[in-house]
Design goal:
This protein has about 110 residues and is of the alpha+beta class. The protein is about 60% helix and about 20% strand.
Length: about 110
């Protein structure tokens, strides 16, 4: 499972969890921490770490979207096949009913 902070607005963080079963996005209030001021090198390292995590998250999301689209395509094909089969059964059923409801020629 992958999780990452995707947005911070007005003291709230939006966290995105990605697992094999789907994506969950939630938010919660952040606790403000007092960090000592970072120097340029520390800020650069922090930004590189964040960028690396975001790259991993984007790759994970791309994989998840690909799998979901593949599953959607499979389900659409199955639905099309089932609709065709239902039409065939409806035609067959209507032909049987017409024959059963006809009067025999000797009446």
């Amino acid at each position: 499972m992958v999780s990452d902070i995707i947005s911070i607005t007005q003291g709230c963080a939006y966290i995105l969890w990605v697992s094999g079963y789907g994506i969950l996005c939630t938010h919660f209030a952040l606790v403000q921490r007092k960090y000592p001021p970072m120097n340029t090198e520390e800020r650069l390292v922090d930004l590189e770490i964040r960028l690396s995590r975001q790259d991993d998250l984007v790759d994970t999301l791309n994989t998840q979207v690909y799998r979901q689209q593949k599953k959607i395509d499979e389900l659409e094909a199955l639905l099309t096949a089932m609709a065709g089969r239902m039409r065939e059964l409806a035609v067959t059923a209507s032909q049987r009913t017409a024959v059963v409801d006809e009067r025999p020629p000797h009446y």
